Amino acid sequence: MNSKWIEDLSAMRESYSSSEMHEAVTSEDPFMIFHQWFSEAVKASTGEANAMTLATAGKDGKPSARIVLLKLYGTDGFVFFTNYQSKKGIQIEENPSGALCFWWPEVIRQVRIEGIITRISKQDSDEYFNSRPLGSKLGAHASQQSKPVASRRELEDKMQQLSEQYQLSDPPRPDNWGGYILNPEYFEFWQGQENRLHDRFIFKKDTSGWKKYLLAP
Ligand SMILES: Cc1cc2nc3c(=O)[nH]c(=O)nc-3n(C[C@H](O)[C@H](O)[C@H](O)COP(=O)(O)O)c2cc1C
Known about the structure:
The protein is α+β, with helices and mostly antiparallel strands. The chain has helices at residues 30-44, 87-94, 122-131, 134-142, 152-165, and strands at residues 51-57, 63-69, 72-74, 77-83, 97-104, 109-119, 177-191, 199-206, 209-214. A hairpin with a 7-residue loop joins strand 7 (177-191) and strand 8. Helix 4 crosses helix 5. Bound molecules: flavin mononucleotide.
């Protein structure tokens, strides 16, 4: 291989095998399949099964991806919490289309979800914010997420000042912090199989409901 690479990983590969076809994938309801796969991932996982990649792009069309934690899900969509003035927040306000991706290596499964992202209600954001530990509440106030800071010290001083300010009562939710919900239009369920002949099922939403298709791996 060409010496321009720092490392050549071309021999690094795993072979996957699992039971031929999964019962769950015979369902016609993508939310129920997600629910089953998520529950199985939580049981099998040694890490945070609710960690998901969130991809967004603002009006310049340049995509940006980062991990966020899934905190609620149901047939309305998938909820995460963040700073509304962060990079992702600005991109979502400019362009509400977004994508989520879960990778659960213990069960060799990937789930991709695409749809439209909107803010959840202030009441729902308050309810979640109020359930967080004090340190996380103070952190949401201290961090102007995705903005440059002069030093780590500046953040620590801000935390100290906030913990003195809120000795007697917990801080309220900052206006620029809350939840977003991604309402799905598309799901893909991917199950690793032998010889790279993986199972891929997608669901697309149209006016009559969800349509299921099998894709080549
Ligand atoms: C495991 C993990 C979980 C994270 N969970 C969240 C989260 O729920 N909300 C959030 O705003 N950032 C979370 N982050 C940090 C984000 O990945 C990201 O650094 C931050 O949101 C700023 O992204 P942005 O500049 O694209 O807006 C998490 C990071 C990791 C590694």
